[in-house]
Structure formats: C-alpha cells, structure tokens
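New to this. Help decode both lines:
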Amino acid sequence: MKKLVSTIVTTSAAAAGLLFAGVLNANADSTYTVKSGDSVWAIAQKFNTTINHVETTNNIKGHYILPGQKLSIKTSSTSSDNNASSTTSNTTSSSASTTSSSSTSNATTTSTSSTDSTTSSYTGSNLKSYVLSQMQSRTGVSASTWNTIITRESNWQPYVRNSSSGAYGLFQNMHISSGSVEEQVNAAVALYEAQGMAAWAL
C-alpha cells in the first residue's frame, strides 16, 4: 500500500512539473534590443504578434522607439521555439536570423548594423540615411515611402522654402519656418502623429 501511494505521489508530482513547464513556455518573455531602422510593425512581425501588443507591453506612445531600447515581448508556445534563438542573438549580436530564410534575414540585418553608427545621429554627410531611418523607426512607415515624399516635396534640399506657401524644409512642413535637419524630422513625426499620411496627401 505504501508503495502504491508513493508511486501515485511521484507520478502526480511529475505531471504537475510538466504542466508547470508548459505554462512557463506558453507565457515566455523575450527581450529584443531595438536596432536603427527598426519599426514597431517590423518587430511585431518578427515575433508573430501585433503592434498594439508590443506598444502596450512596453508603454510605447506614437510608435516611437529608439535604437538600443530594450523591449519585452511575450511570445506564445507556438512561436517561442522559432524566436528563442533569434531573441538571444539579437541581444548579443547585430546579425540575427529571425525566420527560416536565415540567409536573407542575416544579409538584411548585417546591412542595417553597418549603418547603425551613421543613422543614429546626423553628421551632415548622412542626410538621406539618417532621415529615412529616423522616419521609418519612429512612424512605422517604410523608408521608401518617406523617400518618395521627400523627393517630391523638396528634392532632398533641407533648407528650401516655398515662397508662395511658406512651407519649409525636407518635408515642406507648413508648421515650421526654420530649423535643423533634426528639428525637421521631429516636426514631421509630430505632424504624422497628428494627421497621418494625409498631411502629405497620401
């Protein structure tokens, strides 16, 4: 009888242990370090979750994230196995593989990491890469879309002024009349947050 009770207790403990491990796996947290050029949308896609989930979990307002920022992302059991290796490599290295097509992801990430130092701050010689990376990461809108807008509005002339409307700078913003490239980017992000792409008739 004692042996039977001992066996039942041991079996129950093992079952409880497996159940507990399953719960931990189902609610595993991942930490992701934001790289230059990242957007909330791209990070959500990478972890098979939603923009709203990423922003709510990390208290992000207006899709605004910064390179080097650490994000906590809850992953489900179905995606934790796929993302575990990617999460580890992202926090320790700038070249990470996030999907089954690892060669493509690695090529993209390596390319991004090589421009990290030139796109996180404006140096005067990196106008295009700085502006596009800032706008994409801060608004979630692709760099190619911003390139089209800026080319159309100012042809990449940062200090041009429209004599008839008074619009100023790269984005031909009606709400500013002067300012550095950094100030123009900040003003464009604020305008996007207030009006969306409608501010540029898109």
Residues 125-200 form one domain. The radius of gyration is 23 Å.
